[in-house]
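TL;DR need structure tokens for one chain.
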Amino acid sequence: MKSDAIAMTPLSGERKQGTVCIFGTGDFGRSLGLRLLQAGYEVVFGSRDPKNNSLVPKGSKVMAHAEAAQMAQVIFIAVQRDHYQFLTSLTSSLEGKVLVDVSNNLKMGQYPQSNAEYLSSLVPGASVVKGFNTVSAWALQSGALDASRQVLVCGDDPKAKQAVVDIAHSLGLTAQDRGSLRAAGELEDIPLQLFPLWRLPLWIAGGLLAVFYFYLVCRDVIYAYVKDGKDISFRMMISLANKVFPIVSLIMLALCYLPSILAAILQLYHGTKYKRFPDWLDRWMLCRKQLGLVALALAFMHVLYTLVIPIRYYVRYRLSAITISQIRENRTDVFDTTMAWRTDSYYSLGILGFGFYVLLGITSLPSVSNALNWREFRFVQSKLGHVTLLLCTAHTFLYGWDRFLKLSTYKWWTPPGYMLSLVIPCVVLVSKLILILPCFDRTITRIRQGWERLDTGSTRLNSPTQQPLMP
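>> reply
TL;DR here they are.
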């Protein structure tokens, strides 16, 4: 059978690149060697057992460490830190070479000194560059199509870093310079981080889900059992879950836009944009995208749970019981036009809100957001985002309708969950409505353009082209 896969470049023929040495024949070393061969480099592996070369890519060479080091200017150290000691015997061979440390640790803070800095102390005559540690062996094998394409590098020698960057570019990867070798510890911690920007949103979502679920269990299930002696615990699986998901989704959507409201208020209060926000607000603003995506996921769950309502046993039983009761009593309910308007508006706003929700999620994808300029991205995420929040809030108001007027709604004198979910969205929408008033919007715009209000009541313009705040 003829294979449809072809090599990126022939593994034989005239080479257009230089020679690269790799110390280590593990998974990462072999994967890197194969990509280098495909990019046109000549690859030499340095091994403690040169005769055992059955696993290395075809077309490469395997030599002893000292002999391999003489063949190339750039040497990738693809061994663990615990095995660095053998390099001390190669000090003379590594003099003036560029050593690329690709190692990672098992946990953060495992050593007081980063691996790259430790390597530099062992071989002081070489230029050590930290790089390629954020790229996995799988990414190299798959051509970086299914994983991260970014290579982070740091080092004290600009020429050495440029040599590593050139290699990364020749492999079809992107490179970013992160500064001196002191940043190596930060680079080594990156592969060990588990969703750093997702932790706060997930904690918030998990906490809200747990609190509201327990709250609704008490109000619906336990209340019915205590007051009426009814066992409706079966509703915990679908009915209560389908209440909790939209409640938390709406709150988290509002939390995406609340920090921008707080930032505008702080800028108005201080009269400048050059005063640093509190750390908690900075962290909050950095994870707004993740907050929105978690909110979108919960909205999806609400849609899925709503779609199964017609096929539930409890719903079919209730419909049958009501129908039979009407037949026995020879009774027909009068068509309620007001209720028809309410339900149709309720569903319509829900569909529109979810549609805008999905649009916000799509534009947050890097492949989509990179195709938008800043004004387009801001229009979608800010303007349409507030429209989405308004639609979802109106959808929730129609769900409640006039229930807030009925005493039976307040079981054990507690408000229903949907009322609690409206607090933060209403605060955000009302605050946004106030801030877009010309008297506030003009001031905020000037502040963000560099205008400052001094303590004495005078103003300072950071640009000669700026006009006074008031004509």
